[in-house]
């Protein structure tokens, strides 16, 4: 049997199992072609002294940014070039646990294998640093390619502030209840670019899920399941909208009054 840091650590194993489960959903939904998408989870609270004393199994790698809030933090990151469908079956062979070093600008891999983290690591870690700085309980970030939501982002009319939020909320009451902040919009930027990271960070101030125009979504959540659920309800609404259009009509949507009634009844923020 392969040696794994998960052995005898129930809480950590449960967290990694959740990541694997969500990776499977991303693949099954058709949102994770080839090596598309990323998952990064802050697991610092689940790391014991023995893990903290584990030696590095990689060279020291530069993050590319200095993030003082991450001092002493540990993350599980999907590996660069790895597939979600493989991560679903073997998370520790398609992702790894990293330790942020004391300079807050570099890291080492500590378990289980020296799988290099995603090339999107700087942007994911920048978001995590911001979550820590603001005292957020959120521990997970997910990037994926939901087909229907991306399709809708090809319509410039839908890229106005909260145009998509209101449209998606109006398709089915639960979307407003379970994605209460709506969908933020980030105009198209080069994947992996600093501009994309900065625009995402800004938009995440006001939303849990943001649309990267013509590319995908980026979500933060309490854990990876929470982040997935919010994307999933938005995607459900997008499917209802598109199905209505395919049947040849513009869906009526819930009325303003009905949406307001939801906000009051469920004490929603918007
Ligand atoms: Zn992508």
UniProtKB/TrEMBL annotation:
Limits of the Class II aldolase/adducin N-terminal domain: 17-242
Listed name of the protein: Rhamnulose-1-phosphate aldolase
Keyword annotations of the record: Lyase, Metal-binding
InterPro entries (alphabetical): Aldolase_class_II_sugar_metab, Aldolase_II/adducin_N, Aldolase_II/adducin_N_sf
Keyword Membrane: no
UniProt xrefs under Pfam families: Aldolase_II
Keyword Ribosomal protein set for record: no
NCBIfam families tied to this protein: PRK03634.1
Gene3D superfamilies per UniProt: Class II aldolase/adducin N-terminal domain
